[in-house]
Amino acid sequence: MKHSKPTERTKVKVVLPGDTVSLDVTTPGITLGPGLIQAGDSISCTKAGFLVRSGSIYWVENDQKRYIPETGEHVVGRISGKGGEFYRVDIGSAHQAILPFLAFENATKKNRPNLNIGDLIYARVALANKDMDPELQCLNPMNNKADGFGKLEGGMVLKCSLRYCQRLLTQETDICKLLGQVLQFEVSIGMNGRVWLSSDTIKHISLVYNVLKQAEALNNSECKALVNKLAV
Amino acid sequence: MLQSKSFLKRTKKGNAIKVVQEHYLRDDIWCSVECCKLCVQTGPVLSTSAMLTAQIPRPHYIVPDTNVFMNQIDIIEHPALHDVIIMQTVYEEIRHLSLPIYNRLRALINDQKKRFYVFSNEHHRETYIQRLKDESPNDRNDRAIRSAVKWYSTHLKKITNKENHIEVVLLTDDVGNRTKAQEEGLSAFSVREYVEGMTDTPELVDILGNSSNVEGDKKVPYEEHLTSSQITNGIKNGTLHQGTLNISMHNYLEAYTQIMILGRPCLNRAIQGDVVAVQLLPKSEWLRTPTAVVVEEDLKEDGEPKEQNDELENEVIESSQPTGKIVGIIKRNWRPYCGFISKKSVKSSATSTFSENVLVVPMDRRIPYIYIRTRQAQNLMGQRILVSIDAWPKNSTYPQGHYVRALGAAGDKSTETEVLLLEHDVPFQEFASQVLNGLPVEGEAWRVTEEHLSGRADLRHLNICSIDPPGCTDIDDALHVRPLPNGNYEVGVHIADVTHFVKPFTALDEEAANRGTTVYLVNKRIDMLPELLGSNLCSLRCNVDRLAFSCIWELTSDAEIVNVNFTKSVISSKASLTYEEAQILIDDTRKQDDLTKGIRILNQLAKKLHKKRIDRGAITLASPEVRFQLDFDSQDPVDVEMKELRETNALVEEFMLLANISVAEKIYSKFPASSLLRRHPPPTSTKLEELSNAIKPFNFSIEFETSRALAESLDRAVLPDDPYFNKLLRILTTRCMMQAVYFCSGTLQFQDFRHYGLAAGIYTHFTSPIRRYSDVIVHRLLHAAINPDKNYGQELVDINKMQKLSDVLNHRHRMAQLASRSSVELHTNIFFKGKIEHNEGYVTRVLKNGFIVLVPKYLFL
Amino acid sequence: MCIITVLLILISLMDGRRANELRKIKCKPSVLSQADGSAYIEQGNTKCLAAVYGPRETRQKAQLIHNKANINVEISLAPFSMPQERKKRSKSDRRLLEIASAVKQTFEPIIMTNLFARSQIDIYLQILQFDGGTIQICINAATLALIDAGIPMQEYVCACSAGCHENHTLLDLNNAEEMADTPELTVALLPMSGKLTLLQMDSRLHVDKLEPVMNLAALGCKEIYQTLDETVREYVKDLFQKSSPY
To answer: Where does the record say this protein resides (chain C) (predicted)?
Structure first.
């Protein structure tokens, strides 16, 4: 996964739109992430949140709910329509994403995937451009294998803030690991503020759903306490 | 600066409207005591040399409650009282209860000598209190005042040491409040107790409001007034009628709103000018007394009024005029009244110093007698005194009041002049120092300099002259004319630029707005502007540079306007002429200088203008004025003569009318909603019909559909054998006319703007800013209208304020007229004192027990 | 009915504020869970709730702008918002539409709309209680909600009104003060760069008075800015503290 090996992150400070950040723009390799813009020699913020630094990459982290697609990110989407050669997928962004029939493992003109409106899929953003609708694919471009992408059967979706998804992915919040020690479940984390989860029984599904939802506002020790309580 | 964060909501209910307001409590409100080190303050008001009286020999500040202000404002205004703390609670209550008293209070607060401080106790964190359950608003306010007094007394203890300790004293006439205050350890006194303690100024006791119940005679028991809610309901559902009470000048028991009200019981304690609620009587009781003069009310020997109801009832005859009775008073309109003590009512001996009840006879015949309680009855006999009415309980025939001050001996000219000024509500005090501070610092030495020239046309080279009555020092207007190459004439009217000196929102401006107009009495002039401006800096004297506002026309030789131009200017008048001098110049054919030629051209043009105006239908009305020859030393009138009217009077008048009309058009085009204009409504038919009927025997009639018809019918009514007849008719017609009034253009339709008398579609006053405030406003409007870049304030576009202002000006104007008429009357009386003359006169009105005669020579009724 | 009497000590009789003091401000971001961003703000007795949705797909094709996001502002006045009268106002009330367009104009240059081509940002404003200063509270509430939604802005906006009554300049007029025929000027500022994005007045004001009134309003904006800034920083810090993994 993309963020499997995070470099050390440091929270610099709270910033608000309009704040200027004293960074040297001429530093080689400096990268500005979302929430920062360069205006001449200075860098100013466009969002409220924490300015976070990871190596020479800077960005503003906040509790945004609206997803803005970025190439390479993994998302959980819902099929919302069907065109001649593609599905329309709702991934919570400003525009509906396009999922071509051919963007599946082993798909050919004849061999179309069989998805219906309302089905959930786990996909990768293949193309994101502000002037075009985002495009998804259900295969890993490195090896053209499904690699876990595709239709998600059963289970349910949890909507949460974008930052929580990141935390889950980077295991900054290790609730999934902790919970996994207690019961078995499956989870697909999208970067778009949607987490699909499934387990063997409905009871377990709703349990996992509630734990994950609650953990959003908890730190790791509290998560541990919560899971311990469940385990008993 | 600390901003208090405590935060409360206040809900007011009334008329089913809920108002939710924030109410901030703060801890940065200062006590305003001179020596206070605890409060952060600017400009402390209260002095450490506070009140000292014989009763309270320590310095102290006074805190009066609302009723003290309402009933004893005359005491509060007395110079002996100073260093007073007015609680905001009290201040607001007064504002709701009575506007006149509120205004007097404002004046006191602004008077630095009195040292009155308004303490915002409602917004002070430590003095604010909330209304308790089951507590009436009045009790709550009393408690709020006490709480603030308590705060002050502890605060003063903190900031002063033993030697210079200052106290606070609560003044209240409410016994309950007083005991409660004393229980809380505060010193509280009734006004009487307090004033009696002020041994240095014993006259204050007389000024005390007369609230004690005099044992009234039960012969004229008045009906109870309705409560205000009953009145409001009654007016809403049509059973009651609201109106301002207007008592007949000839009979004080006859009064009108729109409904006639007869007799004392029906008048039910209402006084001239009160806004009253009237209930119609059943039709069978609709009555009318034959018009009779009831001027003097007879008093029986013991000072008690004679029973008059019986006579009255015998004399009434049935009529169709709606008659009603007063059942409630919506708004009292009491003011201080001038009067004298009725001799018959004084019973004490000359040496007595006990206080007794005496009757005061007001000068205004429409006002009932007033009971006052005084110790100085003997001293005050034969003097004119000023009294205020306090109350009119239902078991008392006459209202009860209190003595305010003595004006001087009756019959003395200066006393009588003051009386008539007071009676006509003319502000005649000297100008306050704040007002005089607004004058140019250079004083008499003020000169037109280069900087004044910017934005002004330099017209100093023109042959400008002014024409005024002899002895005139406030010259507002000057004229010039010069022939143009195309055969037309350039005619300029130059008006003193008062607005250069009188800027809006200054004390000077406010004072002038309040005075409204200069009042001319026979022997005195009450100026609207301080003398320095009126008679010097603004006055367009000859051979000095003066600032002016000029109105310049191009006129054809037939006096048709080709164009008109307005500009601020600098002029230098070449001659200040009297009407007579100007007339001589016109007539003296030997004189051929430019100035004289100019005056002749003006005279020709004026005649053409006059003719045009008459053709349009303007009426020549007669309101001849008398002029007294005053004895130089005593200022007593020695002879009476008519004011002479010369051609030159008409000359000036014509151009002034022209300027006024041109200006009115200009300002109306720029400010259609907020121009200050003057209109003259057409006369009401009833009065003129009466007059028309009266002259029927002479085969004349009066038509008044249009002013033109009226003018023509007046022209026809000439009796060859009686040359005065036509004049008399014109005088009487003038009396039937409506008053011309100022108004704000946004309040009426354009067709109602007409000036009936001048037959002008639109008219205003522009030409006498030195003596009329309306002209000052018009100057400002015109300046804003001709100068698109000119900044002007909200006050010029606010319709409501403009209309309010015009109401004030109308009132002042009317009062000034009445005052000068009274002054003439006064001098006429002095003139006829001990004189017997035989003269011819005309009977103009016949009453039941008298008739009114007009004597042409003296215009005396 | 009500006249503002400014006494010598310059404390308004209406509510005990000085002429250059703001009413009390309370604000709270992120009050609604459904919206992408939301905020609640009180300025004195005027209370406003703002919700921001977006960027999302345009509802009507006609509103689609091919190179930037369309900002859509809707204002509604709760029927119970006025204590004097209970009246339902339609959304197409002319006055409300006017305020909405003023709010829209204020934010158009501030929000980086070019990042979200062909999409729409909805700002819904609900006045819960009305006591004057509608435009300013709408702008302030919208600012907070936009920040909460994480919509990129060059800088955020603060607005404040000021007026002039009988030659006294007054800050932050409440309803009664507005009713007393006071010309009211609303100024919206970018507090950090000091740029002006809105200047609105419906009545006439003397030119000489414009500058002092504007300066007063600008001072008010700065003060409001401080309150908002504090609130947001506190909120962000709080949020990250609460959900910090450590």
So the answer is: Cytoplasm; Nucleus, Nucleolus
pLDDT above 50 (res B587)? yes
Touching A (3+ Cβ pairs <8 A), the chains are C
Across B331-352, average pLDDT: 77
Neighboring chain C residues of A42 at a CB cutoff of 8 Å: none
Using a CB-CB cut-off of 8 Å, the residues of chain C touching B21 are 14-15, 45, 174, 176
A159 CB within 8 Å of a chain C CB: no
pLDDT tens figures, A207-219: 999 999 888 888 8
- Residue B88, min C-alpha distance to chain C (Å): 9
Chain C contact probe: residue of B6, B20, B115 with most C CBs at under 10 A: B20
d(CA B97, CA C122): 52
CATH architecture of A9-61: Beta Barrel (2.40)
Residue A156's beta-bridge partner residues?
Answer: A197
For residue B170, pLDDT over 60 is answered with yes
Q: What are phi and psi of B106, to 5 degrees?
A: -60, -40
Name residue B112's amino acid.
Q
Best CA proximity match to C15, nearest among B23, B114, B78, B96: B23
Q: Given this model, what pLDDT does residue B443 score? A: 81
Structural domains for chain B: 7-181 (3.40.50.1010), 209-410 (2.40.50.690), 433-678+746-822 (no CATH)
Which helix (DSSP H) or strand (DSSP E) does residue B604 occupy? helix B594-616
Q: What is the pLDDT confidence band of residue C225, given thresholds at 50, 70 and 90? A: very high
Does domain A74-152 match CATH 3.40.50.150? no
Mean pLDDT on B743-772: 89
**In chain C, domain spans:** 25-242
Complex ipTM tops 0.90: no
Q: Which of A31-35, B176-180, B682-686 has the lowest mean pLDDT?
A: B682-686
Answer with the residue of higher pLDDT: B18 or B578: B578
| C-beta of residue A149 within 8 angstroms of C-beta of residue A139 | yes
pLDDT mean over C65-70: 88
Judged on CB neighbours under 10 Å (0-12, 13-18, 19+), C211 is: exposed
Q: How far is CA B509 from CA B323, B470, B568, B821, C16, in A?
A: 45, 29, 20, 27, 30
Mean pLDDT (whole number) for B699-710 = 78
User: Which member of B21, B25, B800 has the closest CB to residue C14?
Assistant: B21
Which residue has tokens 């054809």?
Answer: B556
pLDDT tens sequence across B770-824: 989 999 999 999 998 888 777 676 777 788 888 888 998 999 998 898 888 888 8
Are B794 and C7 within 8 A, CB to CB? no
For chain A, where do the domains classified as CATH 3.30.1370.10 start and end? 156-231
Residue C4 — very low, low, confident or very high, per pLDDT cuts 50/70/90? Answer: very low
C204 vs B120, B794, B800: nearest CB: B794
The CATH number of C25-242 is 3.30.230.70
Residues 7-66 of A with CB under 8 A from C: 11, 14, 16-19, 34-35, 37, 44, 46-50, 62-66
Mean pLDDT of chain B: 81
pLDDT for B99: 81
Name chain C contacts of B20, Cβ cutoff 8 Å.
Answer: 45, 83, 131
Q: How far is CA A141 from CA A147, B828, C230, in A?
A: 10, 119, 47
- B444 closest CA partner among B548, B530, B513: B530
Chain C adjacent subunits, 3+ CB pairs under 8 A: A, B
Amino acid sitting at position B654: E
C204, B29: Cβ pair inside 8 Å? Answer: no
Are the beta carbons of A96 and C246 separated by less than 8 Å? no
- pLDDT higher for B378 or B194? B194
Topology given in CATH for the domain delimited by A156-231: Ribosomal Protein S8; Chain: A, domain 1 (3.30.1370)
